Amino acid sequence: xxxxxxxTSELVRSGIFNALGPLDSPGVRALDLYAGTGALGIEALSRxxxxxxxxxxxxxxxxxxxxxxxxxxxxxxxxxHCMSAARAVGVLEGPYQLVLMDPPxxxxxxxxxxxxxxxxxxxxxxxxxxxxxxxxxxxxxAYQDLTRTRSYPYGDSAVDFFEKGDGGW
Length: 169
Description:
This protein is of the alpha/beta class. The protein is built from five helices and eight strands, in the order H-E-H-E-H-E-H-E-H-E-E-E-E. The protein has an eight-stranded mixed beta sheet with strand order 3-2-1-4-5-8-7-6. The chain starts with 9 loop residues before the first helix and ends in a 5-residue tail after the last strand.
């Protein structure tokens, strides 16, 4: 594992997916930015998502991520992209109904990445974006038409839920 990779805790992962509810609507596509071990995207697939793209910028971590996706039996439902999250927002093709982000807590450009995601064509109306971050980091209430709908504290962590437009699942 790459130094500094912090897998999302089981408590936070459970909280995220309990708040999201079932992902078995037809054709749900998920994007796991800052994928690390792939725990969030793999959880989305295990809860019914039809496809997940994983984005991780560290080549060694990408290799581990590919092994994790294969070992869980989801290789045919997943793509692993070894690039930065900011670049991925500019080159991946959507639409996605769910974006999961749990970046390093020291990331200074988190607002910029969320803003870039909001401006992109990756999100379909009603898409949900889940952002894990340090509780000492404050995110804006809205980015373009991506609006925060909920926020939950988990110890030193916080998770903000955003929704694009006025649609929903």
